[in-house]
Amino acid sequence: MEKTCVEQKKQYDILIIGAGVAGLSAAKSAYELGCRSILVVEHTNYLGGILHQCAHYGFGDGLNGPEYIQTLLDAFPNELEYRLNTTVIGIHADKTAVLSSAEYGVQTICFSQLILAAGCREIQAGALDIAGTRPMGVYTAGQMQEMINVYGILPQSPVVILGSGDIGLIMAKQIAEIGGEVALVEQNSVLGGLERNQWGIEQYAIPVYFDTTITELHGEKHLSAVTLGNGAELPCKTLLIAVGLIPNQELLDGIGHPDWLHLCGNCNRIHAMIESVVYEGKKAGISACEKL
Ligand SMILES: Cc1cc2nc3c(=O)[nH]c(=O)nc-3n(C[C@H](O)[C@H](O)[C@H](O)COP(=O)(O)OP(=O)(O)OC[C@H]3O[C@@H](n4cnc5c(N)ncnc54)[C@H](O)[C@@H]3O)c2cc1C
Fold it and tell me: Domain ranges in the chain?
């Protein structure tokens, strides 16, 4: 049977998937252009996306993640409609989206314009060619960031981080700061990531093993060591994988690139700087309004 929005409730001019910095910036610019029919749908129970777990400073004018979100929310229109704890599980070419939540079950929402601001996810250990057992103690860097900053759970030392991009560097510095023993393994001969995130490595004299990777994990129940490409074995109770991010674009499978679709933030491409996420979010809000 054909879905009708009148029966199902509800029709929005703009539906925004994801309430991170990109989605919130898009909502704000569309609102400022006069659009009053906007729904922001967010999978978690908080606004702000990944910045929620970023305790380090370096966002906007020297703020940490939660402080930066607060400045964004303070400037926000009260009338904005959003739903937390709600996941968009499907988008269809007839301009409908399927939402799932414990509170309302499965619902169909109709929209005129769709802004996808669903962020990205980390590459997991299982995707890497690492031999050996699969013991406890292996996480992604982002998982550990959330464990430390949101839940107050500290990693067991020694910690080894695979990958020296921004998230790997940020986590290495944070673990050294809280007194953990940490080392980095980087397949290239130089550190990745922004220069401002690299100085922590020197400041805390964190050892970096360049031009190599991790080839094997050891340990029965719990991780005990890792082997590097050159055969050296490093004692290791916690391994953090920080080897890259993948834009969350699976919802677009099968719908192509219709003119009602606008992408912004990390689900469009991976951004290193928050300013470019805000810029892209604003642009998505403006182009959605122009098409209404
Ligand atoms: C660990 C880390 C550290 C960083 N540090 C800095 C820094 O120091 N300085 C700086 O300038 N920049 C930094 N950045 C970069 C910048 O902060 C991010 O690129 C930016 O916050 C990404 O915003 P976003 O809205 O695109 O994604 P996110 O913040 O990931 O938001 C996406 C949102 O979409 C939701 N979502 C996903 N799928 C669905 C769905 N199907 N239904 C409903 N909701 C969904 C998610 O729950 C999430 O809340 C960092 C990034 C990371 C990952």
Answer: 5-121+246-291, 124-243
Q: What is the dihedral of CA 256, 262, 264, 266, to 10 degrees?
A: -20
**Assigned superfamily of 124-243:** FAD/NAD(P)-binding domain (3.50.50.60)
Does pLDDT of 52 surpass 80? yes
User: What does the pLDDT read at residue 9?
Assistant: 55
Mutate to test the pocket of ligand 1, among 44, 45, 56, 266 (most ligand atoms within 8 A of CB): 266
Does this chain's domain 5-121+246-291 share its CATH topology with 124-243? yes
148 Cβ closer than 6 Å to some ligand 1 atom: no
Ligand 1 atom closest to 273 (CA): 11
Alpha-carbon dihedral 144, 149, 150, 153, rounded to 10 degrees: 60
Residue to mutate, 274, 275, 278, ligand 1, most ligand atoms under 8 Å from C-beta: 274
Q: pLDDT tens digits for 107-121? A: 999 999 999 999 999
Q: Is 259 exposed, middle or buried (0-12, 13-18, 19+ CB in 10 A)?
A: exposed
Q: Does a cis peptide bond (omega within 30 degrees of 0) precede residue 158?
A: yes
Fold classification of 5-121+246-291 is FAD/NAD(P)-binding domain (3.50.50)
Q: How confident is the model over 184-221, as pLDDT tens digits?
A: 999 999 999 999 899 999 999 999 999 999 999 999 99
* Strand boundaries in 24-95, DSSP class E: 38-41, 57-59, 63-64, 81-83, 86-92
* Bond from prior residue into 291 cis (ω within 30 degrees of 0): no
- For residue 120, how far is its CA from the centre of ligand 1 (angstroms)? 7
pLDDT attached to residue 76: 72
Mean of pLDDT over the chain: 93
Say what the pLDDT of residue 118 is: 98
